[in-house]
Amino acid sequence: MGRKRKNKADNKLPTRVYRGKCAFEFRAKSGKCYKLCKLDVSLSVVYKAYEEALSLTKNTNTVANLINEYLASSDFCEKSPRTQKDYHQYKKDLIKSFGHMNVNRVTRSDVKKFLDAKAKKSGNAQANRHKSALQVVFSWALLYEKTKVNPCIGVPKLKEIVRSKYISDEEYFAIKEHACPVVYAMLEIMCLCATRPQDVLKMQKSDFTEEGLYIKQSKTQVAQIKKWGPRLKKAVNYLAKLYPAIESKHIIFQPKNGARYTKSGFDERFRNVRAKARVATGEKMDFTIHDFKAKSISDFDGSMVEKQMAAGHTNIKQTIAYQRKAVVVDTVETSKMKKSS
């Protein structure tokens, strides 16, 4: 019989289950700790999570254990921080669907059913990302002889609708006209530097150099210095000049305390600004925050290779996907005129 708990209410908890700092934890005999669920849930939820964790300790050759092993591997650590964050998000749904299964008993049919179900819930793009992550895990497992097959191979990805929205100059001016200072500065930096929103949010004043603004792309890990221009200098100093009493190491910061914005916090501000612009102009304003990087690449005056370098892409296909402005090309007639002149 185990010892009595200090907190009498915890005597009802399952064996080897304890209160952690933010979640109930099951500490297996092997020494491994499993986070079960949040502290504010009912006892029945705790028992259900406990039973699932207990089953994992009895069967070590499960997909759940395989995914956790991969996420703790050196191969996974070599991936970019953004990719690592995404995989930890994908893990939740993958373990929910496949976690209890033996790694050698997952079939292509199982993967296809998951793909279709996820597409109905979150769309084709998210379904494909989850399937790709699972395929990477099984490829790693094959390499280390932890499984005999990769059930994801042979399961085609779902068709994705490629975004083609180009933000016109009129739409951009309208959104800036109704933007709060934070959104104004953010969009200017994104459009001038062809940068993702999360990369702008993490920028600090220490990234200023004599030549320009230092940026390391989180997705590709490409390091760049964006040359100074009058608009860029104005944009990166915009909030600091507007709120001189607020001390912050960030370029984009919260005006009330100088803290860094989270992506979700900024996204909410952007949606509010876009809603105001829609009401004021009567236009659809059917673009997302990510479309501003596409506008930047589309508006960049240079060849596709020059656009690729400016965007920090590792291959030209990425750049072509962001090129959304109609490209002016020669016809049979004008090409002959060029040669004759």
Short descriptors:
341 residues, mainly alpha, DNA polymerase, domain 1, hpI Integrase, Chain A, 3 domains, 3-stranded antiparallel sheet, two-stranded antiparallel ribbon, 15 helices
Provide a descriptive summary of the structure in words.
The structure is a single chain. With 341 residues, the protein is mostly helical. It folds into three domains: 8-58, no CATH class; 64-143, DNA polymerase, domain 1 (Orthogonal Bundle); 169-322, Intergrase catalytic core (hpI Integrase, Chain A, Orthogonal Bundle). It contains 15 helices and five strands. The chain has helices at 43-58, 63-71, 74-77, 81-98, 108-122, 124-143, 169-177, 181-193, 197-201, 230-242, 263-281, 291-299, 304-311, 316-322, 332-340, and strands at residues 17-19, 23-27, 33-38, 212-216, 223-227. Strands 1-2-3 form a three-stranded antiparallel β-sheet, with helices on one face. The chain has a two-stranded antiparallel sheet with strand order 4-5. A hairpin with a 3-residue loop joins β1 and β2 (23-27). α2 packs antiparallel against α4 and α8 packs across α12. The longest helix has 20 residues, at 124-143. The protein is globular. The termini are far apart.
Largest sheet report: 3 strands, antiparallel
Number of helices: 15
Fraction of residues in helix? 40-55%
CATH architecture annotation of the largest domain: Orthogonal Bundle
> Termini, distance in Å?
97 Å
How much of the residues is beta strand, in percent?
A: 5-15%
Would you identify the CATH H-level superfamily of the largest domain?
Intergrase catalytic core
CATH class of the largest domain: Mainly Alpha
Strand order of the largest sheet: 1-2-3
- Secondary structure: number of strands: 5
Mean pLDDT: 91
The low-confidence parts are none
Tell me the CATH topology of the largest domain.
hpI Integrase, Chain A
Radius of gyration: 25 Å
The number of domains is 3
Shape: globular
